[in-house]
Amino acid sequence: MPALLSTVSERLAPPTRHALLCALALAFAAPAAPARQQPLGWSLHEFGERLLAESAARGVERETTKDLRDHLAPLHERVRVGAFELWLPAKGVDATGAWSPARELRGSERLVVGLARLQALWLPRIEGSASANSAQLGTELERWAAQWRPGRKPANAEREAALHDALFEHLHGRPRADAAYPHIVCLAPSRAQLCAIAGAEVALRPNESQWISVSWLSHCREFIVPGALAVVSLVSVATDTPALEMRDELLGADTVLENLVHNASHLLSAARHTGAPRWWKESLAIYDTLRLVASEDSLCSGAGESSESSKLGALSQWMFVLSRHKSRYRGRGVEGFFVAELRRALRPEGFELLDLDTNRPALVVPTPHLGQEAEIPASVAKASATVRKAYAEHLRAYPVAFLSFLDRPAASGPSRLESISRELARLSAEERTRNVTLYRVVDTLTGRTLGESNSPTSDLEGEFLAWLAGR
């Protein structure tokens, strides 16, 4: 994943022989249709400029604001959901670059409910939110979401606004200023719209948008513009179609909901867990999605990067669509937050990896995995591609199970996950606290290290391993 981006991208295999045949067919095709009807391809510049022209026609000029949200706002219907807004497309762009009124979106009610339930899940993770008042807020937001329908007029507009304001203050850590944007999840009805949104960001902030590339974007189902919003697509690449062709296939309603919850969780952790490593935020997003949707099939690696000095970011290169379904940690393997499958893989010396092609034991990787200086074992780095993918799948599942272990109910008071989360949120709100890390928080709260040894008495990961082993 790009260093500046938290994303759950659908990375497909490179264009195959089918792509070459398509290219040859186009080369000898009949004369081209008029320019307006000819697909433009993944032209970030062209699509981005057309989006900015659409927003300019509604009074938003790039000379006035470089904030992408300002340019997207007039092209969407904005639904306020607590500390979030769900942006439903009012205008859509097709593969020719033409804009028109967007089709009515079905199933938006489930998405609103998903955002509400996620916030209710996060309230106990924010410092001071264990009060009866915050619990009541979560319940009231979920009740409101269950009754929401498109175009519905609020029965009590003032009360609803007060509810959303209260959620904003709890989850953002400050009252909402009049012009402040909340967390935004913006739905894209086509891959052309993904291209237009990304292209507009490049046009507005060329020096800050180097993570955007056509090769990455053409495989993408969603992305996060740092500090701004999450863009979630309602479509994916059409089956048996080269990724660079803008031919879409509708995603299932459950998949869209998974992607929305996952990315919304990223927005919350990015704001309130600034001292946490990437593996924590990625795994929390997977954990939240499993709790709320009971399924999760993203390509995020749970330990995609455990520290600034780690090399685990390379794992994302080893995860491909055609291989992931062979993993023991997909399908039914997600049940119980991967715990059962991890217990089956646990050996005295570490975890057994199964070659994804042969389904046979390949090697055993030692623990711990989550230390601040964790690196890819040499045995994995030298292994075949299918074994490396199996390791990436293992490290996607492992920290999610670890979070579920921390989130077990305590005898009294918050779970350890909630305690750690509250402290991270408190320190993240203090701008002077630049050097806070998850590892220091764990040491302060528990008196233990994290990922430095397998000792169940002195290391938190060591205790988790002993729990997995049933000791």
Task: Provide structural commentary.
There is one protein chain. The chain is 42% helix and 11% strand. It has 17 helices and 12 strands. It has helices at residues 17-27, 44-56, 68-72, 108-122, 132-147, 157-172, 191-204, 214-217, 253-272, 278-293, 321-324, 339-345, 378-381, 385-406, 416-428, 438-446, 460-469; strands at residues 76-81, 84-89, 91-93, 99-101, 183-188, 222-225, 229-233, 235-237, 248-250, 346-347, 350-354, 361-365. The strands form 4 sheets. It has a 5-stranded mixed β-sheet with strand order 1-2-5-7-6, sandwiched between helices. It has a 3-stranded antiparallel β-sheet with strand order 10-11-12. It has a two-stranded antiparallel sheet with strand order 3-4. Helix 5 packs across helix 6 (157-172), helix 9 (253-272) crosses helix 10 and helix 10 (278-293) packs across helix 14.
Can you summarize this structure?
This protein is of the alpha+beta class and 471 residues long. 42% of the residues lie in helices and 11% in strands.
Overall average pLDDT: 83
Order of helices and strands: HHHEEEEHHHEHHEEEEHHHHEEEHHHHH
Percent range for β-strand residues: 5-15%
**What is the CA-atom radius of gyration, in angstroms?**
23 Å
Question: Could you describe the largest sheet, including whether it forms a barrel?
Answer: 5 strands, mixed
Classify the helix fraction into a percent range: 40-55%
